[in-house]
Amino acid sequence: MSDSSMPEFELAGSIWFRSGTQNWGNPRRMALLAAIREHGSISAAARDIGLSYKAAWDAIDTINNLSDETLIERSTGGQRGGGAMLTPKAIEILELYEHLDEVHQRFMKRLSRARPGSEQTMQVLQNMMVQTSARNNFIGTVSDVTLSQISAEVRLSIGEQFEIVSSVTRESVETLGLTKGVRALAFIKASSIIIGTDCGTARMSARNILHGKIVHLQSEEVGAEVGLELPSGHRIAATITSESMQRLKLTLGQDACAIFKASSVLLGTLD
Questions:
Q1: Quick one: pLDDT band at residue 2, thresholds 50, 70, 90?
Q2: Least confident of 8-12, 44-48, 85-89, 108-112
Q3: Is 163 helix (H, G, I), strand (E, B) or coil?
């Protein structure tokens, strides 16, 4: 029996080109190639796809550096009006990408008709497919972005339970498309997290202080691992020295907090 209240689903996917171990042909960079082909201008191409002029130049450097031969030829001149032209090899790659992407999108539309499950289930599956070396991964929604000339501060709401603040470059915000309401992932290495006690009375410069209870302790000769469970049920792991664990007299069930700088939070997007 069908459930008329079930929301409509849409599966989406993208094709990436790889050179060695580097992914350089992502959809945004391929869109930049297409815009350069159309406009013949770096500034116009950047405006067309919503990139800053600097981010477009950096992307062109990356594309050329990771390719066996030059794909984009540049010329300077005019008021920030640097010209650009695709080489025959770049046109060949772009046309191949556009053809494969068209076939891929048709496949995704056919696959979406299978209605594989609830929206929540599909989001969980998507989150699980992300692989990273960071021990701590959180999925949330961008609640605020504050931009300066070079850097940016991004606030990520982890449900309604707590918030994580990340300090990244303005270029990263533009490249990842981080705007209010966008779903994003926060990655924090366990070695970047400090464990504290009596955090309610301490004054710290770190932007992120997450309170919880110690649910895991493992000590070796030099290092120790501490696991905190937050009131939301999320867990966060930290690696500290065995000396620090002994000095703080950490025990299971003890109230503690995980402290980390905004600059220690890396961000990624799922879309």
A1: very low
A2: 8-12
A3: strand
What is this structure's pTM? 0.56
Q: Pairing mode, if any, of strands 183-188 and 208-219?
A: unpaired
Contacts of 226 (CB under 8 A, 6+ apart): 195, 214, 216, 217, 237, 238, 239, 240, 245, 250, 256
When pLDDT is averaged across residues 78-100 and rounded to a whole number, the result is 81
Q: Which residues neighbour 44 within 8 Å (Cβ) at sequence distance 6 or greater?
A: 35
Confidence of residue 98 (pLDDT cuts 50, 70, 90): confident
Return the H-helix or E-strand segment holding 207: none
Tokens of 204: 């710290």
Radius of gyration, alpha carbons of the chain: 23
Which runs of consecutive H residues, i.e. helices, occur in the chain?
27-39, 42-49, 53-66, 88-112, 119-128, 170-176, 242-248
Interstrand relation of 22-25 and 17-19 (parallel, antiparallel or unpaired): antiparallel
Do the Cβ atoms of 187 and 136 come closer than 8 Å? yes
